[in-house]
Amino acid sequence: MPDGRIAVIGTGYVGLTSGTCLASLGHEVVCGDVDPAKVERMSGGEVPIFEDGLQELMRQGIAAGNLTFVHGARNAVRGARFIFLCLPTPDGGDGRADLRIVHQVVAEIGPLLDPGAILVTKSTVPVGTAEDIIVTLDRSDVSVVSNPEFLQEGTAVRNFMKPDRVVVGSQDRAAAEAVAALYDKLKAPKVITSAESSELIKYASNAFLAMKLSFINSIAGLAEVVGADVVEIAHGMGFDERIGDKFLKAGPGWGGSCFPKDTKALATIALDRGVSFPLLAATTLSNEEAQDRMADKVRDAAGGDLAGVKVALWGLTFKANTDDLRDSPALEVALRLDTEGARLRGYDPTVSADLPAKNGYPAVPAAGDAYDAAAGASVIVLLTEWAEFAEIDMTKVAEVAPGAVIVDGRNLLDPQAAVAAGLRYVPLGRRPPGC
Ligand code: UGA
After folding, report:
1. CB-CB contact of 192 with 33 (8 Å)
2. What pLDDT score does 95 carry?
């Protein structure tokens, strides 16, 4: 294991998970954040995000004394050999990632770093960022390394501990190898590349997965028209090892804090360099169409007009096992329904208060449970694949929403149970029961 303390700058979901997991591998880790109240809570073992297994590891690290939290980047980096930048890189509004926070922090901590320190970009940054950081840093005795994360929200700890691969890129091979050695205990394949390749591997992976999802969602649309079944199609395709059976579940479109932003950012990176890459625009467009189709299904279920129709939304987060609502396809569908005058009520296991209108999405009153949301609704649309929805008692649903139509946007529910309870059931990309 390489010597040297690790500083993690930024304790969002990437920074907190990475810092905590690196500490659990035996490294000494100091996490710095700008928010003093959050630092205090985390020092007390409180996890500010919903992430399975994180709290336990964090408490273990704090108790063992090799995981600490401090206020400010400056306090974290003193004496550190590895400095992981886990900072926000939001969409700058034009599809390009906004790197101002990254450069501000690099300028702030640059003069404080020990000679031989290694600055590591962990959050997703556009190709060329390592080179730009070298300029901002202006220190020939400090190396810059790209080490993108491939964590999925909800399973981040598992993804960190059992990664498919560890990617590290730098012009300084020795620095890249030192960063790769931090993960020795994980026994994952290591891919050591140039900084540019490493930065692009991250975007290419996310955009490819988004494209795969857009593809299967378009197949779902086609399957409905020709009388085929998208679940059977995905099953049949998945046996081909070149395709694989993962990320082939049709849904109401993909979302979250990464896929939409990264697909657009990669398109802009290509455009800025004069490289034609039409698949990326098509991937985003197909996703919007999948969301449109979901809204179309709800309107059809309501008899062609949504004005004044009570619609229950089952699931609001962008996927199950997270409390993240950012760029949620569920909210995209809610927006389309709201625009047509539907009266929405939502239930999500992680949402306890009414959602205010925000970021262009409509307000959604929150129900206490799935039955409460369904009460009096003409249409119920399942948008997020929370496991608890599969356990729903359809007889109880039929009691609170007699004659309702259930639109199953994730093909999660038992169609026969819904029909047996007297409800109409509309699946995605496959024939409704009895047709
Ligand atoms: C994604 C990538 O999967 C991670 O590898 C990456 O590290 C992360 O972005 C990031 O860049 O930080 P995440 O945003 O947590 O992870 O979400 P995913 O699990 O990839 O799901 C994305 C969307 O695809 C969700 O809306 C989900 O419901 C949808 N999805 C996923 C489907 O509709 N069908 C599927 O079969 C799989």
Report:
1. no
2. 81
Residues contacting residue 177 through CB under 8 Å, at least 6 positions apart: 168, 192
Q: Residue 188, SS3?
A: coil
- Give every CB contact of residue 294 below 8 A, 6+ residues apart in sequence: 252, 253, 329, 333, 336, 381, 383, 407, 409, 428
Beta strands in 231-342 (DSSP E): 310-314
Residue 3 has pLDDT above 90, yes or no: no
pLDDT at 114 over 90: yes
Per-residue pLDDT at 275: 98
Start-to-end Cα distance in the chain:
61
* pTM, entire model: 0.95
Instruction: Tokens 């059809």: give the residue.
Output: 300
The catalytic position among 21, 31, 86, 258 is 258
**Does any ligand 1 atom lie closer than 6 A to the CB of residue 124?**
yes
In 3D, which of 148, 15, 29 has the Cα closest to residue 87? 15
Q: How far is the CA of 210 from the centre of ligand 1 (A)?
A: 8
Q: For 193-214, what is each residue's pLDDT tens digit?
A: 999 999 999 999 999 999 999 9
151 DSSP 8-state letter: P
**Spatial strand order in the sheet of 29-33:** 67-71, 29-33, 6-9, 82-85, 118-121, 143-146, 166-169, 190-193
Q: How far is the CA of 433 from the centre of ligand 1 (A)?
A: 30
Task: Give the Å distances, CA to CA, from 150 to 17, 92, 309, 341, 412.
Answer: 12, 22, 41, 39, 26
2 pLDDT tier (thresholds 50, 70, 90): low
Q: How far is the CA of 305 from the centre of ligand 1 (A)?
A: 33
Active site residue 86: no
Task: Tell me the C-alpha to C-alpha distance, in Å, between residue 334 and each of 41, 105, 183, 399, 415.
Answer: 34, 38, 42, 24, 23
Structure-token match 């080490």, residue found: 147
pLDDT tens, position by position, 273-291: 999 999 999 999 999 999 9
Task: Give residue-wise pLDDT tens across range 27-51.
Answer: 999 999 999 999 999 999 999 888 8
